[in-house]
Amino acid sequence: MTMIKFLGGGFLKLLHAFLMLLVHLSLVLGFISGARVGDANNIRCLEGERQALLEFKKVLVDDYGKLSSWRSEDEHKNCCNWEGVHCDNQTGHVLELEVHYLRGMISPSILELPYLTSLDLRGHDFNQSHIPEFICSLSNLTFLDLSLANLSGSFPDQLGNLSHLQQLHLNRNDLKVNENLEWLSHLSSLEYLDLSDTNLRAANDWLEVVSHLPNLKSLFLSTCDLPPMSFSSLPSFNYSKSFTSLESLSLSSNQLNGSILKFLGGICSLRQLYLGNTTLKGQLVDLLNNLSGCAKDSLEGLSLPSNQISGLWPNNFGILFPLLKEINLRNNSISGTLPKTIGNLYNLNYLAVTSNCLRGVISEAFFSNLSKLKYLDLSKNSLTLEFSSQWVPTFQLNFIILDSIKLGPRFPNWIQTQTKIIMLDISDAQISDTIPAEWFTDLPPTLAYLNLSCNQIYGWLPNMLTKFENEGLAIDLSANQIRGRLPLFPTKVMMLNLSKNRFSGTISSLCKISSGFLSYLDLSENRLSGQLPNCFMHWRKLVILNLASNNFSGEVPSSFALLTQLETLSLSNNSFYGDLPLPMKNCSSLSFVDLGNNRFFGQVPAWIGESLPLLNILILHSNNLNGSIPLHMCWLKDLHILDLSLNDISGTIPQCLNNFTAMTQIGNSSSDIFHRYYFKFVDTMYTNMTFVYEKEFVDNARLMLKRREYKYDKILGLLKIIDLSSNKLMGKLPDEISSLLQLVGLNVSRNKLVGEIPQTIGQMKQLQSLDLSRNQFSGKIPSSMSELNFLSDIDLSYNNLSGKIPTSTQLQSFKASDFTTRKKT
Ligand SMILES: *[C@@H]1O[C@H](CO)[C@@H](O)[C@H](O)[C@H]1NC(C)=O
Ligand SMILES: *[C@@H]1O[C@H](CO)[C@@H](O)[C@H](O)[C@H]1NC(C)=O
Ligand SMILES: *[C@@H]1O[C@H](CO)[C@@H](O)[C@H](O)[C@H]1NC(C)=O
Ligand SMILES: *[C@@H]1O[C@H](CO)[C@@H](O)[C@H](O)[C@H]1NC(C)=O
Ligand SMILES: *[C@@H]1O[C@H](CO)[C@@H](O)[C@H](O)[C@H]1NC(C)=O
Ligand SMILES: *[C@@H]1O[C@H](CO)[C@@H](O)[C@H](O)[C@H]1NC(C)=O
Ligand SMILES: *[C@@H]1O[C@H](CO)[C@@H](O)[C@H](O)[C@H]1NC(C)=O
Ligand SMILES: *[C@@H]1O[C@H](CO)[C@@H](O)[C@H](O)[C@H]1NC(C)=O
Ligand SMILES: *[C@@H]1O[C@H](CO)[C@@H](O)[C@H](O)[C@H]1NC(C)=O
Ligand SMILES: *[C@@H]1O[C@H](CO)[C@@H](O)[C@H](O)[C@H]1NC(C)=O
Ligand SMILES: *[C@@H]1O[C@H](CO)[C@@H](O)[C@H](O)[C@H]1NC(C)=O
Ligand SMILES: *[C@@H]1O[C@H](CO)[C@@H](O)[C@H](O)[C@H]1NC(C)=O
């Protein structure tokens, strides 16, 4: 069986785009749960051990009810049936304990389970405390998993007492080694050790210690800040005594250099080598030569992604490493074309070379012996795949990732021979053709991710009739030329992006997407029309809804009120009308709202401030809104873009503006606009490999700044703008406005504002654009304005101001024509 899981709640907002991979992986791991259900037989647990377990439960916080079966009533008394408890089927002693994602301390009562051999508390939240020392007295343990457990501090030396340990998982904590790893050298039964994410900078003995663990098969030390060492000058390392059993090694995300390859090449048992993101530099040929000690004859997996490896492939690549099943060299600078000898690696199931400088034409002959290939990723290279239209490959791929290379202009026929596709990404592949209708109506049921975006695919889209096996399906057909009505999509769709096409008609057929998985719907920039159907109750998990730039009309349907997870809502550039949609009041997760350029009327509702506390961006321009700006709006402390321009809003500008903390304080809010969407695939049928794939949605909006309208996306999070222009606002521009120290653009032009410009306006040092024109401001232009060093666009015209505009350095550096300083009328 091929199993695919989409992560529930997979939308995350992250501070920086780069962090995502790490954070992402942690969350993915964080969701792999699955405590074992107790033996459903008649073995009875022993009273003493039962009491110990109840004691253990007592001091834990069980947020997810994982221990709800741990009860003392008669019928639940048998602790061998409790979730996560595994007893010896002869003696009834508790042998294994496996409970995940709890909080709080571990009770020492666990010591009253003397026969415990396996303790798995992965994902527990130890609240940054140290590894509890008493665990080291559980001397019968063969398996200990305290990974992802919010542990900190260093390791107790007594860990060395666990001399029967075969597996030790301590990765994903904040652990640190202060002196050395001496304790580890006592764990001579250890076969599997994962200390990834532990700070080992001080552990100068790490190599010495791990290399002498006689039974060690798997060693994971990624992101350990390993101390710098020159592997080329190690005192004659005796391989017949060291690393004698090592099969899998990961030193990814450490700072290493090429000298390690020669060293590792001497480990004759090595099968899997992971050295991603290790600052390896140099020519691929040299690096591989250095690796080709005896390890080359056993190596099955070679993974060197995200390094600075350049140069050509050695022609004899496939001959050097004859057993390779997995090649991962993505994100390097390798040039040339793929060597033919890769085609000899008939065990190869995984080939990933995305994001290199590969070029040339690959023909079907290259693949003729690769019948076991399951994962093919050649994307983001200057490669051309040229296959005859009759070609039937010998492989059946699960993963086809061929975006940003040349596949077109015809839609590749061979893809239609692949019946087990899980993921197909052929976006930006220069395909200029129609979608093969037969194939599209009968896609492989294994499909979970389909991306044909950014091609020139034209014509109509047939209904997608396949019954898909997976929980969720992501479909991205954006940026093509597909026209006509929306077809029927499968009920299990989770992500649907049809933006930037020529679809027309209503969207009521989408109501068939009713399994409740839909969390991402982007239909923007099409020719869709009519009213929105009232079927949002099927889409309660929606996080992103973008319907911008279509011809929709009518009111927002009442079922909108169920979208409590919605974070991004864009309805801009349509003809929606009605009172500002009241159903939106319940969408309390909203952070981005763009209703600009519609026909909404009525007052700007006060509930926006109360009900949408997470709003970052509120764009309501070009509607028919009236009334005044509600004071409650000032509650939106995260708001950094407020655009109410081109409405009929009257009243005064509230003084409480200084409550917009996001505009007063330095802060990078780019986190609000990146929505990363993660997919985790586990292929249990062929390889048991886990694949994680991500997709990004970046909020975007058209905004006026410096009198030009731009579509902003990635930098939207950095912009801090207030645009109240072209309304009927009266009264003064409140002094408080000058406490918005981070504001980049302020436009209150075309209102009826009176009084003086706040004297303190010079405080707003980040201002780049200031438009106060066409009001009734009077008095002297404040001299503090000369402190506005970044101001490059200013318009004070059509007021009753006197005095000169004090020039700042920035203003002087611009030509006079770049900024309007038209004098008062
Ligand atoms: C008892 O456990 C052993 C190994 O743990 C297993 O081989 C055996 O089949 C089990 N017996 C019963 C009756 O479940
Ligand atoms: C370990 O298990 C054995 C039985 O397998 C038992 O006799 C011994 O007491 C246990 N060790 C400890 C420290 O409890
Ligand atoms: C880890 O513990 C710290 C300290 O109590 C807490 O603030 C933090 O939220 C915890 N982190 C996780 C991921 O549970
Ligand atoms: C976590 O640790 C802090 C002190 O480091 C303590 O104040 C807090 O109560 C602890 N929380 C839990 C849930 O134990
Ligand atoms: C654990 O190891 C320490 C030395 O590190 C030793 O003094 C102690 O007796 C051991 N404890 C047990 C329970 O074996
Ligand atoms: C590798 O790094 C070590 C430690 O930083 C250094 O001593 C050694 O000279 C480096 N070797 C190469 C080939 O750059
Ligand atoms: C390496 O160890 C083996 C086995 O202990 C021994 O026979 C051999 O002489 C050693 N080689 C060196 C160079 O020390
Ligand atoms: C690469 O490794 C460094 C440590 O050397 C780490 O800080 C960084 O997060 C890693 N980057 C990725 C993308 O894993
Ligand atoms: C390969 O190994 C040799 C000898 O250890 C070393 O001088 C050279 O720098 C290594 N090549 C690379 C690319 O690291
Ligand atoms: C590519 O590799 C570089 C290090 O060489 C790393 O900083 C970057 O994050 C990697 N990019 C991706 C997309 O993995
Ligand atoms: C400022 O915002 C907070 C909530 O973020 C609110 O409680 C407070 O009343 C607001 N202050 C004003 C003057 O509106
Ligand atoms: C994948 O892992 C599962 C569970 O560990 C195992 O039952 C299955 O045989 C494995 N499949 C392959 C192809 O290795």
From TrEMBL:
Residues 48-88 form the Leucine-rich repeat-containing N-terminal plant-type domain. The keyword Metal-binding does not apply. Belongs to the RLP family. Keywords: Cell membrane, Glycoprotein, Leucine-rich repeat, Membrane, Receptor, Repeat, Signal, Transmembrane, Transmembrane helix. It holds the Pfam family LRR_8. This is Leucine-rich repeat-containing N-terminal plant-type domain-containing protein. Residues 105-285 form the Disease resistance R13L4/SHOC-2-like LRR domain. It comes from Quercus lobata.
